[in-house]
Task: structure prediction
Amino acid sequence: MAFGINRMQLKEWKEKIDGGEIAFLTHYWLDDRFPSYKTVTKVGCNDLEKLKRWGEQYGLKAEWIHSRKDGYPHFDLIGEREREILETEGIPYRLK
Result:
């Protein structure tokens, strides 16, 4: 279950993806499979090759890309790896 973002933030994320940018969206998230994690960052881009190359630099595998029917392919980042990648990308990790 996702929460903690508004429609404008989601719209901006989708617009960046549609524009071929690597786009980041961090929100609160609860999933019984991962009880110790409270946030997820979705990193998306509609240019799959660009998204794959971006992921490779962080050891993310292409098969981990969620290719959605609505056209917003993305990686899901959680846990310490999420924080490390955001830090490397210069994106403040604001959620706790």
